[in-house]
Amino acid sequence: MRPGPHLRPAARRSAEARPTNLSPRSRGAIAVCGHGGCRFFTLGEMADVVVEFELWATEPALPTSPHGDRFEGSFTVDTGRVVLGSVTGSPSDVVIELPVPGPFRLRAFRAGTPTVNADFPDLDHRHERWLIQTWPSSTESVGDRRPVR
Questions:
Q1: Where in the sequence is the domain holding 66, given as residue range(s)?
Q2: pLDDT digits (tens, 9 = 90+) for 82-119
Q3: Half-sphere exposure of 26 (CA within 13 A, CB side)
Q4: Which of these, 11, 14, 123, 137, could form a disulfide with 103 (CB 3.0-4.6 Å)?
Q5: Is it the case that residue 15 has pLDDT exceeding 60?
Q6: CATH number of the domain where residue 135 is located
């Protein structure tokens, strides 16, 4: 597995709030979360990843469409902003405004299919779709669902 998308603070107020300080990935886990954000792991040696991020006021229902792998966890941010992006940085990284700083709950779902990449036929290449649902751990309201693609 390789590091895939991750949530990290958009601006740090605390030296402890770094995704690099997250616990190591346990065997078979698709993600790790903690103070500073979350890190998600793709399968294979190369992956094309599409992520749908949903911010909810309260815990949402489980998705109706089937997803392969699942993770549940919590993270804390010291600011009201996180970046959904790649560990290597990317022009497609997205800043997400959260309603409040503090603790959040998260569910992540990963589904992937192997594919052949003409430029790198010997590598394990995959197309992956992720659904990440998050909501405040407290009773703070965030309004309606706001998907970010």
A1: 2-148
A2: 888 877 667 778 888 888 899 999 999 988 877 777 77
A3: 4
A4: 137
A5: no
A6: 2.60.34
Length reported for the chain: 149
Report pLDDT digits (tens) over 42-66. Answer: 876 677 788 899 999 999 999 887 6
Summarize the chain as % helix, strand, coil (round to 5). 0, 50, 45
Which of 17, 10, 20 is closest to 82 using CA atoms?
Answer: 10
Q: How many domains does the structure of the chain reveal?
A: 1
Q: What is the DSSP letter of 67?
A: -
**pLDDT at res. 86:** 76
CB-count exposure of residue 111 (10 Å: 0-12, 13-18, 19+): middle
Structure tokens at 134: 């998050």
Encoded amino acid at 108, one letter: A
Joined together, the tokens standing for residue 2 give 């390789």
